């Protein structure tokens, strides 16, 4: 199987990803990922119904993963013989948009899981002085992050980036006292201490 990162939004495909999609004998992905690359598809495309059964797909199948497959993506299902093609991630897009250097960044995800470990990681990494990239959960977003930072006595910028690459893209900077609030569920956060 070839797992292809299709980027976090429109127009974020690498040339390698385009080539893999164009030459694919069959494609599998979410409705959103298929929509992002529809102009490059020359074969049948199927919506994945059960991600735990990806290992049952044909060896030459191309599987689309939004963002980068190795960050909260389908790369976690890759076997050692599978190929993974990178995609532009929300991490890269956010750091570029808000001019945040990635070398001093802790990457945390609460997306689609219990946010307790993400909360603990945020406390630990902020305590080490790091900036944070967070894929939030429904119950662990900008307001909860701001509340936590306030409890810790930390001053920081909170940057919210949503609908990246889409016409309704929105990038907002707030503070611990006045955090930006998401208007959609497709967003990420940066906590910038320095």
From TrEMBL:
SUPFAM superfamilies given for it? Tetrapyrrole methylase
CDD domains assigned to the protein according to its UniProt record, in alphabetical order: Precorrin-6Y-MT
Question: What's in the keyword line of the UniProt record?
Answer: Cobalamin biosynthesis, Methyltransferase, S-adenosyl-L-methionine, Transferase
Q: Which residues form the Tetrapyrrole methylase domain?
A: 2-177
Where in the sequence is the signal peptide annotated? none
- Please cite one Gene Ontology biological process associated with this protein: methylation
Give the pathway.
Cofactor biosynthesis; adenosylcobalamin biosynthesis
Q: Which Pfam families match?
A: TP_methylase (PF00590)
The UniProt GO MF terms for this protein read: protein methyltransferase activity
Name of the protein this chain belongs to: Precorrin-6y C5,15-methyltransferase (Decarboxylating), CbiE subunit
Q: Which organism is it from?
A: Methanomethylovorans hollandica (strain DSM 15978 / NBRC 107637 / DMS1)
């Amino acid at each position: 199987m070839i797992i292809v990162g299709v980027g976090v939004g429109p127009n974020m495909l690498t040339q390698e990803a385009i080539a893999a999609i164009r030459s694919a004998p069959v494609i599998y992905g979410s409705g959103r990922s298929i929509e992002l690359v529809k102009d490059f598809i020359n074969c049948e495309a199927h919506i994945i119904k059960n991600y735990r059964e990806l290992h049952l797909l044909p060896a030459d199948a191309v599987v689309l993963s939004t963002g980068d497959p190795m960050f909260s993506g389908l790369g976690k299902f890759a076997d050692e013989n599978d190929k993974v093609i990178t995609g532009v991630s929300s991490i890269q897009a956010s750091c570029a948009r808000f001019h945040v250097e990635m070398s001093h960044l802790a990457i945390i995800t609460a997306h689609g899981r219990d946010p307790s470990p993400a909360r603990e990681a945020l406390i630990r990494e902020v305590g080490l002085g790091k900036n944070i990239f967070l894929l939030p959960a429904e119950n662990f977003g900008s307001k909860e992050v701001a509340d936590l930072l306030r409890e810790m006595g930390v001053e920081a910028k909170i940057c919210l980036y949503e609908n990246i690459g889409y016409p309704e893209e929105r990038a907002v900077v707030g503070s611990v006292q006045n955090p930006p609030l998401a208007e959609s569920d497709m967003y990420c956060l940066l906590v910038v201490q320095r």
